[in-house]
Every structure is written in C-alpha cells, then in structure tokens.
Here is the input.
Amino acid sequence: MQRKEILGLAALVMAAVIWGFAFVSQVQGMDSMSPLFFNAVRFTLGAISLLPVMALTRRRHRPADGGTRTDDSPASDLSVASSPAAGATTPWMTLAIGGACGVLLFTAGTLQQYGILYGRSAGHAGFITALYIVLVPLFGLFAHRRVTALTGVSVIVALAGFYLLCLGDGFEAINMGDLMVFLGSVCFALHILTIDTLGSRIDPVLLSFIQFAVTALLSWIGALADGSIDWRGAAEAWIPVLYAGFGSVGIAYTLQSVGQRFVPPTRAALALSLESFFSVVGGVILLSETMPMRGYIGCALIFAGTLMAQLPAKVPSFLRRPDRNKVL
Here is the structure.
C-alpha cells in the first residue's frame, strides 16, 4: 500500500469518525431546538461550508486558456462515487435534478431528526440509518438492476440485526423514534438511487450545494410554519449546530473527496461504513448511552450486513495477494 493510499484511507476513516459523532450532536441539538429549526441552521451552514470547496474545485479545473477541463474531477460527493463530466446538462436541468435530490434529502433528514428527538439514541440512529446501504441494492430490483446472492444475504443479516436492535421484544416494542429513523433510511436509499440515476452528469460539489440549499430552504419554511424558530435555543446548542453543519459537511466532505482520490472504491466504502460504529462510540463516551447485549448483537449484524453489501461478488485482489505491500 502506497503512502498516498494510507493517507487517503486515514482521511476516509476520519470522515467516518466525524459523521459517527455527528449523531451525538444531533441528539444534543434536540435539547433546545426543534428538528426543523436544527436542520434549517445545519444545512444552511453545510451549504455555506461548500462554497470554498466549489471555488477551489473551479480553480483547479480551469486550464490556462480559461476553458473548463472535464477530466480529473473530484472522486465523490456525499453520496456519489463517480465523477461526472462537467457541463453535461443545462443550468435548468442541473437545478431540477439538484432540487429533486434536495426534496428527498429534506424528507430523509426530517424523518431522521424527528426520530432522534423521540428516540434520543445516537447509537440506534447511526446503525438504523446505515440500513440504507443494504436497501439501495434491494430497491435497485425495481429498476431491473442485478442483485448478487451476497447482496441478498447481506439484506437478511442486516434486517436480522434491525430486529434484535429494535424489535427484540416483539413488533409492539418498537418506539416511534426508531421507526422514523428507519423511514428516513428508506428515503436516504431513494435519495442515493436518484443521484445515481439523474445526477451522474452534474459536478458532484455543485449537486451537493444545491441539494443542501434546497434542504435548508424547505427546513426554514417548515420551522417558520410550526413557529419553532428559537435563536436563544440555537445559542444554547451552538456547539452541536456548528459541528453538524461545518464539521459533518464541510470538513468530512473534504476529507472524503480527498481520500477517495487515492483509495480503491471497495476499501473506501468499507472505511466509510465505520460511521455507524463511531455513532455508538460517541453515544457511549459523550451521552453515556448503554444497550442490552441483544442490542449490541443487533448492531454487529447490521454492521456485518452493510459490509457484505459493499463487497464485490468476486473477492478483491488485495485480499488474495500474499504480498500486501504490492501496489494495486
């Protein structure tokens, strides 16, 4: 493994740490803010934090003659793992696709945040949200996408983990918070499929900015409608808000974009899967959360299922080669 790949892998793990601990900030933010107001401020800060990244990306991609270069674009955004060709859509089409993604992200984020309000568990929210990883290929069946046997097994394993984590005492035992986070995970899966289908021709940084801006706008409208805007509450929760806005979007996004330039997709996906693990770590350290043994077993099964869902059907070469130091 080359030095650049090691540093890239470290950047991806750090992004997973930041995103995992962001669930803690989402729980803490509910102490003094409403879900819609919290998301309004959070995604506004998130959109603002992408402005320097957009400026830097535009500068890097502008050749000396003032034209636009379409190669060597960023490796990924928060949901897309490929680089689209710049300028492949009209501005109106770009806004329409970004707006559609923003509506789905708003729906997913709102359900997740209300679920966290009612559930009050960073660990539960982190692992239930991670189910979108196995739901994406499952929903892909409706688009006539091929699903491997390994993917089918991963879905069964992950859903068994969800049962142990949330339904171990029967379906009547599920709380409203876990159910809403799960519905949010479903919307996150639909969001990713939408980006995969419609967003592949749009610059990923621009797409992220548009969908964050749309999510922020809809959240502001919702917060105004329910009268939950409380700046005193926002001042009390300024650390969680800044962390969720600038940390989990601006910093973690940049780390992911840099890391995935040097790390193969399978390794990158596995590193980013650690997000759910760090949500539990953050909950234990900062919120003193605990679970029964059944819950930890459920988390382990969900984690195993998400890892299996991201493994290629063929065993990757780096797992088969005896020389682990050989450059891929």
Q: What stands out?
A: Residues 64-87, 315-328 have pLDDT under 50 and may be disordered. Residues 1-57+91-143+174-289 form one domain. The CA atoms of residues 7 and 270 lie 15 Å apart.
